[in-house]
Write the structure tokens for this entry.
Amino acid sequence: MKKLILILIVCLLAGCGEKKAVEIAPQEMLGMEIMWMEQGEKALTSVEKSHIGNIMFVKDVAIIGYRGGGKSITLWITTYPNSTIAEEETERMARAMLHFEDWGVHLNRSRIDGNEVYTTLRDVRHYFWSDGRCMFYIVPKNLNQTEIERIIRSIECDSGWTW
């Protein structure tokens, strides 16, 4: 019995059973199907190429492209060791954007379903927020605001998507 309890404690502390970033993503979103996907080290390398600052504390990354019905969305999912780090890294990214006029001048924050959601504009509107141990970043194309908010409301880091 002591061994079983010890295994359970180790599992809880080590995050056993936590979903990988790619496992959090749905197979389809608002009728759009997955067209391409990167995960793990390949996805992290892609993220690092598109950022100037340090990418820190990352456990896993997935980048998924969805398309259908004349609409598309790119979804980045980054998992962190815990919710505090995910929130801090989301805030750090928002602060960093303020140093770049093309990103910072359009940076806004609003509350959607209890989440602090940042938006910025570069060709199209970008949205990012943290939920639990995850940071989510989406770039929707040809979606209306209601559809975008539905996506934001539907995502839950460790519970999957609630469609």
